[in-house]
Amino acid sequence: MLSVVIPAYNEERRLASTLPEIRSYLSGREYEVVVVDDGSADGTAEIGVRFGCRVLRHPANLGKGAAVKSGVLASRGDPVLVTDADLAAPITELPKLEEALRAGADVAIGSREAPGAKVWRAAFSRKLAGKAFNLLVRLATGLPYRDTQCGFKLFRRPAAEALFSLAECRGYCFDVEVLLLARRFNFVVKEVGIEWHDRSGSKVRLLRDGWRMLRELREIRSSLTAASSAATAGTTVPGGGSFPGPPGAA
User: Fold this and answer.
1) d(C-alpha 250, C-alpha 245), whole Å
2) Is residue 65 part of a domain?
3) Residue 233: pLDDT above 80?
4) Residue 245 forms part of a structural domain
5) Does the residue 244 lie in any domain?
6) Which of 11, 22, 56, 205 places its Cα 20 to 30 Å from the Cα of 4?
7) Do residues 85 and 18 lie in contact, with contact meaning Cβ atoms separated by under 8 Å?
8) For residue 250, is it within any domain?
9) CATH number of the domain residue 178 falls in
10) For residues 16 and 85, what is the distance between their CA atoms, to the nearest angstrom?
């Protein structure tokens, strides 16, 4: 069974159009949709219930990372897809990520920058900010991915449980933390170029959220560096497998 996890904050309007798209596309296969209402003030939860989703409710707005973590850990399927409420990456792109898992990946991440990606109507300021942030991520962490922040990712169940049980970032930088944890646990991650459409009404504000993301990135780097220094090889990780120690350790 496929699990589809959708973090949602004041998304009643968009969910009313995107949930039917998901249901129509997945018709004929076993699946569940988990909508995480992250402290919305509108009818987000009611829309989720109307379309037959499992709905989790946060009593207050905790952040996208917190919402994704709640949804992934509450989901029951394998694999687990995380996607945004606006379907900026159309649900029809799912087979590309599924193919990556069939080829041996534990995690497949949609990318607006990898070969084969097609981006429609991306605002110049948003595109420039994304490229700048990704450059900072690569310099600060050594992660090789061209696009860590695309909200379209597919996880094998063991990887999802291991990574999100340990992830702590509540904000938009949770993607970076999850990918750093995946590297630590030697999970195979495949970056896949996908189709992506710029949607109006994004909750991200470049100045306000840009500074928050930089702070989160610094905190994640410090936290994982400290954890790597304290870890010992052979420690069991959630969901199975073993902790290999810091990257590059003998």
Assistant:
1) 9
2) yes
3) no
4) no
5) no
6) 205
7) yes
8) no
9) 3.90.550.10
10) 10
